[in-house]
Design a protein that fits this description.
The complex is a heterodimer of chains A (109) and B (112).
Chain A (H helix, E strand, L loop, with lengths): L4 E2 L2 E5 L4 E6 L7 E7 L5 E8 L4 E4 L2 E6 L4 E6 L8 E9 L2 E4 L3 E6 L1
Parallel strand pairs in A: 2-11
Antiparallel strand pairs in A: 1-3, 3-8, 4-5, 4-9, 6-7, 7-8, 9-10, 9-11
Chain B lengths: L3 E4 L2 E4 L5 E7 L5 E8 L3 E10 L2 E4 L6 E3 L9 E3 L8 E8 L7 E2 L3 E5 L1
Parallel strand pairs in B: 2-11
Antiparallel strand pairs in B: 1-3, 3-8, 4-5, 4-9, 5-6, 7-8, 9-10, 9-11
The chains are: A mainly beta (109), B mainly beta (112).
């Protein structure tokens, strides 16, 4: 199975908040990342959190980290149609990142 | 800066053919990576490199080879293409091993 697990789909109404959840396995991960992939494009870094933090806020994005449960979440406030994409959670492991399968977020009017 | 560039964008191969996927970065990054992305499966690491002359296997290296003769370039070689290698291939680079990775636009490969 995957080392990093995410739900595969999320549908949200425009203007509502989206919450994407992720569980990871390596408690020694230094950083945890959220990447965004738009159709036909590569991944772009959305935000990240250092492992000694519980929360990070960046404009409409809020990342919450629960190290005890190895749970990471990304909240997008006031979701817009441009937020429709696949969102990947990733944990750092030595020289590499380990990615989840991605959550496809669909924003409906 | 062009960032990470990949060529070609698309390719169709016949079973048993060979090809090289090109990847280059102009950010002077030491670390470079090759991933494949299959539908609903996320990204799987094929090979990675921590610097010129140094490469190592990732999760799914079988059927692929890489070389890293310069800091800038990290080509991926498929010697005997198989239908199971139909996928989208992404190259990425980073300054630090656990740092932000910058991705290329991808190569969509179909093996028939």
């Amino acid at each position: 199975g995957e080392d990093v697990e995410q739900s595969l789909f999320l549908s949200v109404r425009e203007g509502d908040s989206s919450v994407i959840n992720c569980t990871y396995t390596d408690s020694s991960s230094t950083y945890l990342y959220w990447y965004k992939q738009e159709p036909g494009a590569g991944l772009q870094l959305l935000t990240y959190i250092f492992s000694n933090m519980d929360m990070k806020q960046d404009q409409r994005l809020t990342v919450l980290l629960n190290k005890k449960d190895k749970h990471l979440s990304l909240r997008i406030a006031d979701t817009q149609t441009g937020d429709s994409a696949i969102y990947f959670c990733a944990e750092s492991m030595a020289y590499k990142l380990s990615f989840g399968a991605g959550t496809t977020v669909t924003v409906r009017a | 800066n062009a960032g990470v560039t990949q060529t070609p964008k698309f390719r169709i191969l016949k079973i048993g053919q060979s090809m090289t996927l090109q990847c280059a970065q102009d950010m002077n990054h030491n670390y470079m990576y090759w991933y494949r992305q299959d539908p609903g499966m996320g990204l799987k690491l094929i090979y990675y490199s921590v610097g010129a002359g140094i490469t190592d296997k990732g999760e799914v290296p079988n059927g692929y080879n890489v070389s890293r003769s310069t800091t800038e370039d990290f080509p991926l070689r498929l010697e005997l293409a198989a239908p199971s290698q139909t996928s989208v291939y992404f190259c990425a680079s980073s300054y630090e091993g656990e740092g932000e990775q910058f991705f290329g636009p991808g190569t969509r490969l179909t093996v028939l």
